[in-house]
Amino acid sequence: MISIVYITFFAAQILLCSSATANIDPNTLRDVFGYGSTYNPIGAVATETYRQVVAVTPYNETLVDPDYWDLDEFHPSAANFDKFDWTLTKRVAAVSGDNFLISPLGLKLALAILTEAATGNTKLELSSVLGFALDRREVRIKFSTIIDSLKKQNPEYVLNLGSRIYIGDYVLPRQRFAAIAEEFYKTEIRGIDFYNPPEASKQINAWVSNITHGKIPDLVDDDDVSGVVAIILNALYFKGSWRHQFPTNATKSAPFFVTPDLQKPVLFMNIKEKFYFTESANFDAKILRMPYRGNKFAMFIIVPNSLTGLSRIMNGLSDLHLEMNNLQERTVDVTMPKFQFDYTSKLESVLKELGIRQAFEETASFPGLARGQLLHQRLRVSKIVQKSGIEVNEIGSIAHSATEIGIVNKFGEDDENDYEVVVNRPFLFFIQDEYTKQLLFTGRVSDPSIVDGGYKVL
Protein backbone atom coordinates (compact mmCIF):
# COMPACT_ATOMS: atom_id res chain seq x y z
CA MET A 1 0.00 0.00 0.00
CA ILE A 2 1.29 3.46 -0.89
CA SER A 3 1.50 5.81 2.06
CA ILE A 4 2.34 9.37 2.87
CA VAL A 5 5.68 9.57 4.61
CA TYR A 6 7.17 12.55 6.35
CA ILE A 7 10.96 12.89 6.43
CA THR A 8 12.89 15.51 8.30
CA PHE A 9 16.57 15.89 8.93
CA PHE A 10 18.73 18.43 10.62
CA ALA A 11 22.33 19.06 11.54
CA ALA A 12 23.97 21.90 13.41
CA GLN A 13 27.54 22.88 14.00
CA ILE A 14 29.06 25.19 16.58
CA LEU A 15 32.64 26.11 15.77
CA LEU A 16 35.02 27.32 18.44
CA CYS A 17 38.16 28.98 17.16
CA SER A 18 41.15 30.27 18.90
CA SER A 19 43.67 16.08 21.02
CA ALA A 20 43.32 13.10 21.28
CA THR A 21 40.52 12.44 23.75
CA ALA A 22 41.62 11.05 27.09
CA ASN A 23 39.68 8.05 28.36
CA ILE A 24 37.16 9.02 30.98
CA ASP A 25 38.22 7.63 34.32
CA PRO A 26 35.28 6.11 36.27
CA ASN A 27 36.60 7.94 39.31
CA THR A 28 36.09 11.20 37.43
CA LEU A 29 32.42 10.41 37.02
CA ARG A 30 32.23 9.83 40.74
CA ASP A 31 34.04 13.07 41.48
CA VAL A 32 31.92 15.10 39.06
CA PHE A 33 28.51 13.74 39.94
CA GLY A 34 28.97 12.35 43.44
CA TYR A 35 27.83 8.86 42.48
CA GLY A 36 28.66 6.02 40.15
CA SER A 37 28.42 6.11 36.37
CA THR A 38 24.69 5.29 36.36
CA TYR A 39 22.50 8.16 37.48
CA ASN A 40 19.10 7.50 39.03
CA PRO A 41 17.78 10.96 39.94
CA ILE A 42 14.90 11.66 42.27
CA GLY A 43 13.70 15.22 42.66
CA ALA A 44 11.82 18.12 41.15
CA VAL A 45 12.67 19.75 37.86
CA ALA A 46 12.25 23.47 37.42
CA THR A 47 10.75 23.83 33.96
CA GLU A 48 6.98 23.50 33.80
CA THR A 49 7.04 21.78 30.43
CA TYR A 50 9.27 19.03 31.74
CA ARG A 51 7.26 18.56 34.92
CA GLN A 52 4.18 18.10 32.75
CA VAL A 53 5.82 15.12 31.07
CA VAL A 54 7.09 13.17 34.04
CA ALA A 55 4.60 14.03 36.76
CA VAL A 56 2.88 10.65 36.40
CA THR A 57 6.05 8.63 37.00
CA PRO A 58 8.86 8.76 39.55
CA TYR A 59 12.15 10.03 38.18
CA ASN A 60 13.75 6.64 38.66
CA GLU A 61 11.48 5.23 35.95
CA THR A 62 11.90 5.71 32.22
CA LEU A 63 9.18 7.22 30.05
CA VAL A 64 6.72 4.62 28.79
CA ASP A 65 7.30 3.40 25.27
CA PRO A 66 4.63 4.30 22.71
CA ASP A 67 2.15 1.49 22.13
CA TYR A 68 3.13 -0.37 19.01
CA TRP A 69 -0.50 -1.10 18.21
CA ASP A 70 -0.86 2.66 17.81
CA LEU A 71 -3.82 3.69 19.94
CA ASP A 72 -3.87 7.49 19.88
CA GLU A 73 -3.58 8.66 23.49
CA PHE A 74 -3.47 12.39 22.74
CA HIS A 75 -5.29 14.65 25.17
CA PRO A 76 -5.43 18.41 24.61
CA SER A 77 -3.78 20.53 27.27
CA ALA A 78 -2.47 24.05 27.71
CA ALA A 79 1.03 22.84 28.57
CA ASN A 80 3.59 25.55 27.92
CA PHE A 81 6.16 25.23 25.17
CA ASP A 82 9.73 26.21 25.89
CA LYS A 83 9.73 29.99 25.42
CA PHE A 84 13.01 29.82 23.48
CA ASP A 85 11.43 27.64 20.77
CA TRP A 86 8.91 30.24 19.66
CA THR A 87 11.23 33.19 20.27
CA LEU A 88 13.72 31.57 17.89
CA THR A 89 11.02 30.66 15.37
CA LYS A 90 9.57 34.18 15.31
CA ARG A 91 12.98 35.74 14.77
CA VAL A 92 13.95 33.35 11.98
CA ALA A 93 10.56 33.90 10.33
CA ALA A 94 11.05 37.68 10.46
CA VAL A 95 14.30 37.54 8.48
CA SER A 96 13.44 34.66 6.13
CA GLY A 97 11.66 35.53 2.92
CA ASP A 98 10.00 32.28 1.90
CA ASN A 99 10.06 28.76 3.31
CA PHE A 100 12.14 28.05 6.39
CA LEU A 101 12.81 25.09 8.64
CA ILE A 102 14.68 24.99 11.94
CA SER A 103 15.13 22.50 14.75
CA PRO A 104 14.71 24.24 18.12
CA LEU A 105 15.49 21.02 19.99
CA GLY A 106 18.65 20.37 17.99
CA LEU A 107 19.94 23.88 18.59
CA LYS A 108 19.10 23.71 22.30
CA LEU A 109 21.01 20.45 22.69
CA ALA A 110 24.11 21.89 21.03
CA LEU A 111 23.93 25.11 23.06
CA ALA A 112 23.30 23.19 26.29
CA ILE A 113 26.55 21.29 25.77
CA LEU A 114 28.33 24.57 25.04
CA THR A 115 26.92 26.07 28.24
CA GLU A 116 28.57 23.30 30.26
CA ALA A 117 31.97 24.73 29.28
CA ALA A 118 31.03 28.37 29.93
CA THR A 119 31.52 30.56 32.98
CA GLY A 120 30.73 34.11 34.03
CA ASN A 121 28.63 36.36 31.83
CA THR A 122 29.01 33.97 28.89
CA LYS A 123 27.20 31.28 30.85
CA LEU A 124 24.60 33.71 32.22
CA GLU A 125 23.65 34.90 28.74
CA LEU A 126 23.33 31.37 27.39
CA SER A 127 21.30 30.17 30.37
CA SER A 128 19.02 33.22 30.37
CA VAL A 129 18.15 33.12 26.67
CA LEU A 130 17.66 29.35 26.67
CA GLY A 131 15.53 29.49 29.82
CA PHE A 132 17.78 27.14 31.78
CA ALA A 133 17.45 26.71 35.52
CA LEU A 134 20.31 28.02 37.64
CA ASP A 135 20.82 24.52 39.02
CA ARG A 136 22.80 22.79 36.29
CA ARG A 137 21.79 19.35 37.53
CA GLU A 138 18.15 20.11 36.73
CA VAL A 139 19.11 21.06 33.19
CA ARG A 140 21.18 17.89 32.79
CA ILE A 141 18.36 15.69 34.08
CA LYS A 142 15.90 17.33 31.70
CA PHE A 143 18.01 16.83 28.59
CA SER A 144 19.11 13.35 29.62
CA THR A 145 15.47 12.25 29.90
CA ILE A 146 14.52 13.89 26.60
CA ILE A 147 17.41 12.21 24.79
CA ASP A 148 16.66 8.82 26.35
CA SER A 149 13.03 9.12 25.26
CA LEU A 150 13.97 10.03 21.69
CA LYS A 151 16.49 7.21 21.40
CA LYS A 152 13.95 4.52 22.27
CA GLN A 153 13.35 2.36 19.20
CA ASN A 154 9.90 1.95 17.68
CA PRO A 155 9.14 -0.02 14.49
CA GLU A 156 6.55 2.56 13.44
CA TYR A 157 9.06 5.35 12.76
CA VAL A 158 12.77 6.07 12.40
CA LEU A 159 14.42 8.66 14.61
CA ASN A 160 18.17 9.07 14.73
CA LEU A 161 19.65 11.57 17.15
CA GLY A 162 23.36 12.06 17.59
CA SER A 163 25.71 14.58 19.17
CA ARG A 164 29.47 14.66 18.81
CA ILE A 165 32.28 17.06 19.69
CA TYR A 166 35.41 17.10 17.56
CA ILE A 167 38.43 18.62 19.35
CA GLY A 168 41.78 19.27 17.73
CA ASP A 169 44.46 16.68 18.43
CA TYR A 170 46.63 19.40 19.94
CA VAL A 171 43.97 20.21 22.59
CA LEU A 172 43.43 18.26 25.79
CA PRO A 173 39.75 18.31 26.78
CA ARG A 174 38.84 18.55 30.43
CA GLN A 175 37.73 15.22 31.84
CA ARG A 176 34.90 16.85 33.77
CA PHE A 177 33.44 18.33 30.58
CA ALA A 178 33.87 15.03 28.71
CA ALA A 179 32.19 13.11 31.53
CA ILE A 180 29.19 15.45 31.67
CA ALA A 181 28.81 15.44 27.87
CA GLU A 182 28.84 11.65 27.77
CA GLU A 183 26.71 10.96 30.85
CA PHE A 184 23.89 13.45 30.33
CA TYR A 185 23.99 14.53 26.69
CA LYS A 186 25.06 11.17 25.20
CA THR A 187 27.75 13.07 23.31
CA GLU A 188 31.00 11.56 22.10
CA ILE A 189 34.23 13.54 22.09
CA ARG A 190 36.61 12.70 19.28
CA GLY A 191 40.10 13.96 18.54
CA ILE A 192 40.67 15.19 15.00
CA ASP A 193 43.45 16.83 13.00
CA PHE A 194 42.10 20.26 12.05
CA TYR A 195 45.50 21.01 10.46
CA ASN A 196 44.42 18.60 7.72
CA PRO A 197 41.12 20.25 6.66
CA PRO A 198 40.25 17.84 3.80
CA GLU A 199 40.51 14.80 6.05
CA ALA A 200 38.80 16.54 8.98
CA SER A 201 35.81 17.65 6.90
CA LYS A 202 35.59 14.17 5.38
CA GLN A 203 35.35 12.54 8.82
CA ILE A 204 32.78 15.03 10.08
CA ASN A 205 30.59 14.80 6.99
CA ALA A 206 30.67 11.00 7.06
CA TRP A 207 29.30 10.98 10.61
CA VAL A 208 26.54 13.50 9.83
CA SER A 209 25.60 11.68 6.63
CA ASN A 210 25.26 8.42 8.55
CA ILE A 211 22.93 9.96 11.15
CA THR A 212 20.77 11.67 8.51
CA HIS A 213 20.61 8.69 6.13
CA GLY A 214 22.59 10.57 3.51
CA LYS A 215 20.29 13.61 3.50
CA ILE A 216 23.12 15.92 4.63
CA PRO A 217 26.32 14.65 2.99
CA ASP A 218 28.30 17.89 3.22
CA LEU A 219 27.61 19.85 6.39
CA VAL A 220 31.10 21.36 6.45
CA ASP A 221 33.76 22.16 3.87
CA ASP A 222 37.52 22.55 4.23
CA ASP A 223 37.28 26.26 5.05
CA ASP A 224 34.79 25.59 7.87
CA VAL A 225 37.24 23.42 9.80
CA SER A 226 40.41 25.38 9.12
CA GLY A 227 41.71 27.19 12.20
CA VAL A 228 39.11 25.90 14.64
CA VAL A 229 39.73 24.33 18.04
CA ALA A 230 36.49 22.38 18.37
CA ILE A 231 33.20 21.70 16.59
CA ILE A 232 30.02 20.77 18.45
CA LEU A 233 27.68 18.80 16.18
CA ASN A 234 24.08 17.71 16.54
CA ALA A 235 22.20 15.70 13.92
CA LEU A 236 18.57 14.59 13.89
CA TYR A 237 16.68 12.46 11.37
CA PHE A 238 12.99 11.60 11.53
CA LYS A 239 10.91 9.52 9.16
CA GLY A 240 7.33 8.71 10.00
CA SER A 241 4.10 7.57 8.36
CA TRP A 242 0.84 9.37 8.90
CA ARG A 243 -1.51 7.51 11.21
CA HIS A 244 -4.28 8.25 8.71
CA GLN A 245 -2.96 7.64 5.21
CA PHE A 246 -3.81 9.99 2.33
CA PRO A 247 -5.28 8.07 -0.64
CA THR A 248 -2.98 8.64 -3.59
CA ASN A 249 -5.86 8.70 -6.08
CA ALA A 250 -7.13 11.87 -4.38
CA THR A 251 -3.95 13.86 -5.10
CA LYS A 252 -4.65 16.59 -7.65
CA SER A 253 -3.13 19.82 -8.93
CA ALA A 254 -4.66 23.06 -7.68
CA PRO A 255 -3.54 26.67 -7.14
CA PHE A 256 -1.61 27.69 -4.02
CA PHE A 257 -1.84 31.38 -3.11
CA VAL A 258 1.76 32.45 -2.55
CA THR A 259 0.37 35.99 -2.30
CA PRO A 260 -3.14 37.31 -3.01
CA ASP A 261 -1.91 38.20 -6.51
CA LEU A 262 0.34 35.19 -7.21
CA GLN A 263 -0.92 31.64 -7.58
CA LYS A 264 1.18 28.58 -8.38
CA PRO A 265 -0.08 25.10 -9.33
CA VAL A 266 1.01 22.44 -6.83
CA LEU A 267 -0.11 18.91 -5.96
CA PHE A 268 -2.63 18.74 -3.14
CA MET A 269 -3.42 15.65 -1.07
CA ASN A 270 -6.87 15.07 0.41
CA ILE A 271 -8.32 12.98 3.20
CA LYS A 272 -11.50 13.00 5.28
CA GLU A 273 -10.83 11.55 8.70
CA LYS A 274 -11.06 12.25 12.42
CA PHE A 275 -8.41 14.70 13.61
CA TYR A 276 -8.00 16.99 16.57
CA PHE A 277 -8.91 20.44 15.30
CA THR A 278 -9.96 23.90 16.45
CA GLU A 279 -11.02 27.23 14.97
CA SER A 280 -9.03 29.94 16.75
CA ALA A 281 -10.69 33.33 16.99
CA ASN A 282 -7.58 34.83 18.57
CA PHE A 283 -5.39 33.74 15.66
CA ASP A 284 -8.16 33.94 13.04
CA ALA A 285 -6.87 30.56 11.92
CA LYS A 286 -7.46 26.83 11.90
CA ILE A 287 -5.21 24.53 13.95
CA LEU A 288 -4.97 20.88 12.91
CA ARG A 289 -3.13 17.99 14.56
CA MET A 290 -1.95 15.19 12.27
CA PRO A 291 -0.43 12.28 14.22
CA TYR A 292 2.18 9.81 13.02
CA ARG A 293 2.12 6.10 13.64
CA GLY A 294 3.85 5.15 16.84
CA ASN A 295 1.82 7.30 19.24
CA LYS A 296 4.63 9.73 19.99
CA PHE A 297 4.98 12.41 17.29
CA ALA A 298 2.52 14.69 15.56
CA MET A 299 2.60 17.53 13.06
CA PHE A 300 0.51 20.59 13.82
CA ILE A 301 -0.56 22.86 10.98
CA ILE A 302 -1.76 26.42 11.57
CA VAL A 303 -3.36 27.98 8.51
CA PRO A 304 -4.79 31.52 8.57
CA ASN A 305 -8.31 32.22 7.36
CA SER A 306 -7.00 35.25 5.49
CA LEU A 307 -4.55 34.97 2.61
CA THR A 308 -2.33 37.49 4.42
CA GLY A 309 -3.01 36.37 7.98
CA LEU A 310 0.19 34.48 8.76
CA SER A 311 1.87 37.48 10.42
CA ARG A 312 -0.91 37.58 13.02
CA ILE A 313 -0.20 33.96 13.86
CA MET A 314 3.55 34.56 14.14
CA ASN A 315 3.03 37.53 16.46
CA GLY A 316 0.85 35.47 18.80
CA LEU A 317 2.94 32.31 19.07
CA SER A 318 3.68 32.89 22.76
CA ASP A 319 -0.04 32.25 23.43
CA LEU A 320 -0.33 29.18 21.23
CA HIS A 321 -0.39 26.83 24.22
CA LEU A 322 -3.74 28.32 25.26
CA GLU A 323 -5.24 27.53 21.86
CA MET A 324 -4.00 23.93 22.04
CA ASN A 325 -6.35 23.32 24.96
CA ASN A 326 -9.30 23.90 22.61
CA LEU A 327 -8.48 21.06 20.22
CA GLN A 328 -11.39 18.65 19.77
CA GLU A 329 -11.67 15.45 17.80
CA ARG A 330 -13.75 16.15 14.71
CA THR A 331 -14.32 14.72 11.27
CA VAL A 332 -12.20 17.01 9.09
CA ASP A 333 -11.84 17.19 5.32
CA VAL A 334 -8.14 18.06 4.90
CA THR A 335 -6.59 19.35 1.69
CA MET A 336 -2.88 20.12 1.96
CA PRO A 337 0.03 20.45 -0.48
CA LYS A 338 2.90 18.06 -0.97
CA PHE A 339 6.12 19.92 -0.31
CA GLN A 340 9.84 19.40 -0.07
CA PHE A 341 12.67 21.83 0.60
CA ASP A 342 16.09 22.19 2.19
CA TYR A 343 17.10 25.11 4.36
CA THR A 344 20.49 26.26 5.61
CA SER A 345 20.94 29.08 8.08
CA LYS A 346 23.72 30.83 9.93
CA LEU A 347 22.29 31.72 13.32
CA GLU A 348 24.93 33.95 14.90
CA SER A 349 23.04 37.20 14.26
CA VAL A 350 19.72 35.79 15.45
CA LEU A 351 21.23 34.51 18.70
CA LYS A 352 23.00 37.82 19.29
CA GLU A 353 19.69 39.64 18.92
CA LEU A 354 18.12 37.24 21.41
CA GLY A 355 20.83 38.09 23.95
CA ILE A 356 23.65 35.57 23.40
CA ARG A 357 26.49 37.96 22.59
CA GLN A 358 29.61 37.36 24.63
CA ALA A 359 30.01 33.80 23.35
CA PHE A 360 30.97 35.27 19.97
CA GLU A 361 33.35 37.92 21.32
CA GLU A 362 36.99 37.97 22.39
CA THR A 363 35.79 38.21 26.01
CA ALA A 364 34.03 34.82 25.78
CA SER A 365 34.75 32.47 28.66
CA PHE A 366 34.85 28.71 27.99
CA PRO A 367 37.43 27.43 30.48
CA GLY A 368 35.50 24.20 31.03
CA LEU A 369 36.18 22.85 27.56
CA ALA A 370 39.94 22.40 27.40
CA ARG A 371 42.98 22.48 29.63
CA GLY A 372 45.43 25.34 29.51
CA GLN A 373 44.76 28.87 30.76
CA LEU A 374 46.04 30.63 27.64
CA LEU A 375 44.04 28.38 25.32
CA HIS A 376 40.65 28.78 26.94
CA GLN A 377 41.02 32.55 27.13
CA ARG A 378 41.13 32.60 23.32
CA LEU A 379 38.12 30.34 22.74
CA ARG A 380 35.00 31.90 21.26
CA VAL A 381 32.16 30.73 19.03
CA SER A 382 32.84 31.65 15.41
CA LYS A 383 29.89 30.06 13.63
CA ILE A 384 26.57 28.34 14.27
CA VAL A 385 25.04 26.68 11.21
CA GLN A 386 21.92 24.58 10.75
CA LYS A 387 21.10 22.51 7.70
CA SER A 388 17.57 21.15 7.64
CA GLY A 389 15.27 19.47 5.19
CA ILE A 390 11.70 18.27 4.99
CA GLU A 391 9.78 16.10 2.56
CA VAL A 392 6.08 15.29 2.53
CA ASN A 393 5.20 12.95 -0.34
CA GLU A 394 4.16 9.47 -1.41
CA ILE A 395 7.04 7.02 -1.16
CA GLY A 396 7.43 3.24 -1.16
CA SER A 397 5.28 0.60 0.43
CA ILE A 398 4.62 0.58 4.16
CA ALA A 399 3.43 -2.64 5.75
CA HIS A 400 0.72 -2.07 8.33
CA SER A 401 -2.59 -3.48 9.49
CA ALA A 402 -5.84 -2.32 7.89
CA THR A 403 -7.58 -2.59 11.24
CA GLU A 404 -8.40 0.68 13.01
CA ILE A 405 -9.14 1.03 16.70
CA GLY A 406 -11.99 3.48 17.22
CA ILE A 407 -11.61 6.14 19.89
CA VAL A 408 -14.56 7.67 21.68
CA ASN A 409 -14.54 11.44 21.44
CA LYS A 410 -13.11 12.75 24.71
CA PHE A 411 -15.42 15.75 24.42
CA GLY A 412 -18.66 13.91 23.78
CA GLU A 413 -20.47 13.04 20.59
CA ASP A 414 -19.31 14.42 17.24
CA ASP A 415 -21.13 17.33 15.68
CA GLU A 416 -23.25 16.39 12.70
CA ASN A 417 -21.38 18.93 10.58
CA ASP A 418 -17.96 18.09 9.18
CA TYR A 419 -15.12 20.60 9.18
CA GLU A 420 -12.82 21.57 6.34
CA VAL A 421 -9.18 22.65 6.28
CA VAL A 422 -7.79 23.82 2.94
CA VAL A 423 -4.09 24.62 3.23
CA ASN A 424 -3.76 26.67 0.05
CA ARG A 425 -1.93 29.71 1.46
CA PRO A 426 1.25 30.31 3.50
CA PHE A 427 1.09 28.33 6.75
CA LEU A 428 3.07 27.48 9.86
CA PHE A 429 3.81 23.92 10.94
CA PHE A 430 5.70 22.17 13.70
CA ILE A 431 6.44 18.60 14.65
CA GLN A 432 6.29 17.78 18.33
CA ASP A 433 7.35 14.92 20.55
CA GLU A 434 4.12 14.66 22.51
CA TYR A 435 5.76 12.79 25.39
CA THR A 436 8.40 15.38 26.23
CA LYS A 437 6.52 18.34 24.63
CA GLN A 438 9.68 19.27 22.73
CA LEU A 439 9.54 20.81 19.25
CA LEU A 440 11.75 18.83 16.91
CA PHE A 441 11.07 21.13 13.97
CA THR A 442 9.24 24.37 13.25
CA GLY A 443 8.79 25.89 9.85
CA ARG A 444 6.80 27.92 7.37
CA VAL A 445 5.70 27.03 3.88
CA SER A 446 5.16 30.14 1.77
CA ASP A 447 5.65 28.44 -1.59
CA PRO A 448 5.42 24.62 -1.90
CA SER A 449 7.00 24.78 -5.36
CA ILE A 450 10.37 25.86 -3.89
CA VAL A 451 12.71 22.92 -3.32
CA ASP A 452 15.91 24.61 -2.16
CA GLY A 453 15.49 27.28 0.49
CA GLY A 454 19.07 28.36 -0.08
CA TYR A 455 21.65 29.59 2.39
CA LYS A 456 20.41 32.24 4.77
CA VAL A 457 22.64 34.48 6.86
CA LEU A 458 20.22 35.29 9.64
Tags for this entry?
alpha+beta, serine protease inhibitor, 458 residues, Antithrombin, Chain I, domain 2, glycoprotein, 34% strand, seven-stranded mixed sheet, secreted, Serpin_CS
Write the layout of secondary structure elements.
Elements: E1 2-17, H1 26-33, H2 48-54, H3 83-95, E2 100-102, H4 104-116, H5 120-130, H6 136-151, E3 157-168, H7 175-185, E4 187-192, H8 197-211, H9 222-225, E5 228-241, E6 252-259, E7 262-280, E8 285-291, E9 297-304, H10 310-315, H11 320-324, E10 328-337, E11 339-346, H12 348-354, H13 373-378, E12 380-397, E13 419-422, E14 427-433, E15 438-445, E16 452-457
Parallel strand pairs: 3-4, 10-13, 11-16
Antiparallel strand pairs: 1-5, 1-12, 2-15, 3-5, 6-7, 7-8, 7-10, 8-9, 9-14, 11-12, 14-15
Task: Characterise this structure.
There is one protein chain. The chain is of the alpha+beta class. The chain has a domain at 2-72 and 102-240 and 341-390: Antithrombin, Chain I, domain 2 (2-Layer Sandwich). It is globular. The chain is 27% helix and 34% strand. The model is unreliable at 1-9, 19-24, 28-69, 393-416 and 454-458 (pLDDT under 50). Helix 1 packs across helix 7 (175-185), helix 4 (104-116) runs antiparallel to helix 5 (120-130) and helix 6 packs across helix 7.
